[in-house]
């Protein structure tokens, strides 16, 4: 397929998303299923263009004067990828499957468009209903934070200390031009292609042998701040597919006991194979069983309980731009109540003197500091420890600058160049 055919396909997919309210991943899958001629490379290029358009949807719409799929794709080419109107016209002209070349009005918009006078939510490409919350979190810098959240995410990996160190991983992935990440001592970053696609790192021998795991640098840092120690009893309460479980396991160097739990058994399923590949031998996966408290024997025993809580994922919008436009106020309310439940489930597991580390990949105070404050009011036996101190103790003094006034750490694409993460460290008396 030609670049023009990719643009036409991206317009078709964005039309399906708008008309059928389909999630982007589903719309892309449906598009591919009915067009077998498109190979995997074509599908990846189309997806990349669709996601570029979605990441910057409101600022493109403002500049193009339209939020129609065609305007979004032209705008993604022009403003995200820096393709000139002339180049676009030349590539569309005469191609078999191609959108109409840009009209005079479209060319003028692409050449002259500016975001001057646009409100913060348009400049920052986030939903208008979240403006107040973004203002509470970031004040006058909310548009810049939003803009950083609308960039493409890098492809980050974590070197698994159970299998080797970062130098070994860098060596193993030197053909992908992997480089060390700036903040995590375990992190590697693999460059993307100019149209935003990453190499298939999961097929690399280094991944198949467990030397590296795909994990955003912010997620790595959250796990490092939690600082599971060798010999400790550690519970990862909301383990999901185990991204942070595996990071905690590596910190424990095979000593002590790690327990992974999730209320949704399907999410835990991949962890069994992932742990084997990563060489983790001190992990018990406690799958949920209807009507049973599968963690009952751990009450008052854990040195560390990690609550990597379910959240709106506002911090990961770079990877999932579809989610930011699909998010509704009702979903935020549900997540807040789930966060309170997860914290209440974690509290009795922590032993006297033990830590409860609360993590979200959200940037909204409702899900972060407000949940911690409400928990501390319900559970006076816990108090908050400055996360900067925990970071320094974990050998990460450079993270102290990301501390917020409450003592938690807040990472974001703009602040730390990572996905957005909130980390609060609580200690039980
Ligand atoms: C942010 S995801 C976890 C991601 C995972 N820790 C990782 O690093 O890959 C949150 C998880 O919490 C789970 N969850 C929600 N409420 C829970 C609860 N009360 N107890 C345990 N798990 C819960 C969800 O099923 C979901 O898998």
UniProtKB/TrEMBL annotation:
Keyword match Methyltransferase: yes
An example molecular function term from Gene Ontology annotations: methyltransferase activity
Record-linked InterPro entries: MeTrfase_RsmB-F_NOP2_cat, MeTrfase_RsmB-F_NOP2_dom, RCMT, RsmB-like_ferredoxin, SAM-dependent_MTases_sf
Active site residues of this protein: 361
Coiled-coil residue spans: none
GO biological process terms held by the UniProt record: methylation
Protein's name according to its UniProt entry: RsmB/NOP family class I SAM-dependent RNA methyltransferase
UniProt: S-adenosyl-L-methionine binding residues: 262, 308
Name of a matching Pfam family: RsmF-B_ferredox
Family designation: Belongs to the class I-like SAM-binding methyltransferase superfamily. RsmB/NOP family.
Domain SAM-dependent MTase RsmB/NOP-type: 145-429
Record key words, sorted: Methyltransferase, RNA-binding, S-adenosyl-L-methionine, Transferase
């Amino acid at each position: 397929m030609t670049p023009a055919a990719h643009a036409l396909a991206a317009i078709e997919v964005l039309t399906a998303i708008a008309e059928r309210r389909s999630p982007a991943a589903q719309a892309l899958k449906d598009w591919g299923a009915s067009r077998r001629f498109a190979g995997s490379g074509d599908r990846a290029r189309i997806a990349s263009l669709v996601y570029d358009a979605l990441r910057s949807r409101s600022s493109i719409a403002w500049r193009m004067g339209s939020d129609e799929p065609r305007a979004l794709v032209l705008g993604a080419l022009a403003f995200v990828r820096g393709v000139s109107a002339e180049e676009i016209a030349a590539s569309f002209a005469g191609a078999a499957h191609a959108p109409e070349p840009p009209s005079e009005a479209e060319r003028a918009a692409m050449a002259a468009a500016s975001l001057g006078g646009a409100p913060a939510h348009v400049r920052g490409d986030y939903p208008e209903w979240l403006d107040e919350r973004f203002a509470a979190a970031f004040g006058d810098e909310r548009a810049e934070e939003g803009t950083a959240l609308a960039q493409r995410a890098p492809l980050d990996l974590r070197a698994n200390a159970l299998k080797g160190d970062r130098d070994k991983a860098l060596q193993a992935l030197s053909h992908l031009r992997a480089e060390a990440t700036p903040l995590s001592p375990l992190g590697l970053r693999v460059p993307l292609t100019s149209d935003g696609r990453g190499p298939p790192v999961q097929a690399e021998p280094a991944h198949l042998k467990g030397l590296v795991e795909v994990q955003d640098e912010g997620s790595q840092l959250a796990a490092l701040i939690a600082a599971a120690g060798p010999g400790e009893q550690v519970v990862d309460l909301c383990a999901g597919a185990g991204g942070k479980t595996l990071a905690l396991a590596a910190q424990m160097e095979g000593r002590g006991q790690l327990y992974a739990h999730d209320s949704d058994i399907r999410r835990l399923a991949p962890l069994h194979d992932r742990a084997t590949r990563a060489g983790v031998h001190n992990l018990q996966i406690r799958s949920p069983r209807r009507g049973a408290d599968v963690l009952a024997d751990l009450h008052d025993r854990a040195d560390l309980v990690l609550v990597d809580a379910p959240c709106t994922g506002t911090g990961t919008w770079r990877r999932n731009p579809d989610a930011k436009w699909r998010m509704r106020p009702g979903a935020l309310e549900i997540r807040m109540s789930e966060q309170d439940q997860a914290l209440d489930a974690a509290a009795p597991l922590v032993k006297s003197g033990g830590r409860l580390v609360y993590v979200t990949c959200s940037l909204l105070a409702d899900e972060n500091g407000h949940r911690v404050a409400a928990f501390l009011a319900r559970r006076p036996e816990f108090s908050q420890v400055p996360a900067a101190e925990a970071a320094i103790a974990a050998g990460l003094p450079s993270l102290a600058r990301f501390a917020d006034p409450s003592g938690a750490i807040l990472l974001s694409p703009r602040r730390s160049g990572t996905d957005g993460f909130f980390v609060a460290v609580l200690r039980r008396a």
